[in-house]
Amino acid sequence: MCDQHASQFSRRSLLAAAAVSPFASAPALAAAAEAAVDTPLPNAISPDEAISRLIEGNRRYAANTPANRDFSAGRAARAAAQYPIACVVGCADARVAPELVFDQAPGDLFIVRVAGNFVNTDSLASLEYGVKVLGARLIIVLGHSNCGAVKATIDVLKKNIALPGHLPILIDAIRPAIDLAEKAQASDPLAEAIAQNVRYNVRRLEQAGPIISDYVARGQVKVVGGFYKIANGEVELI
Ligand SMILES: [Zn+2]
Known about the structure:
CATH superfamily of the largest domain: Carbonic anhydrase
Strand content: 5-15%
Number of helices: 10
Number of domains: 2
Helix content: 40-55%
Bound molecules: zinc ion
Order of helices and strands: HHHHEHEHEHHHHEE
CATH architecture of the largest domain: 3-Layer(aba) Sandwich
CATH class of the largest domain: Alpha Beta
Largest sheet: 5 strands, mixed
Strand order of the largest sheet: 2-1-3-4-5
Radius of gyration: 21 Å
Distance between the termini: 30 Å
Structural class: alpha/beta
């Protein structure tokens, strides 16, 4: 990760200004720079448009008719900058690869993955970068069926097991969702806990100040939840 996108505006502005004339007046240079800044970036789409692209991509993936098969296409452009259309908070689970699940090209998704797809300060900082610097207008928290991290948290809490190493960090992070799921008394406690974990982290992100909450309040960024069903490949927004 680097700040190439942060410098994109100034770099483009300088290039545009230089293209006017090396001897152009200061106002002309300023006008050229302003015009360059106004040029929409490739990911300058609305949150709803980003949702549509992900849903359509997931339909292609579930139907086994992906559009993204040529990974050399766009490689030269990607070397210069990234323009992700969405941020994803995904589970580290090996079966949940967001680019595949949403049939998006390399460079389209800015992803943080941790077992149990929860938000902590590290991932929040990355998401702030994705929104503020890279210009992504959508964040999707993606849970999935049969999540081992959520399942383990239920077991550990029920049996009062002490886990070794840093594993208790995962339990502490997922625990709020388990508490919420217990209150719901659903017929499928695991699926309910997975869904509650997604919704809980969506709410946390919507309220995560000072950056993301501000974008959400102004309607410039949406945070949504998704439930990925491994068996059929479909993502359901929840
Ligand atoms: Zn998982």
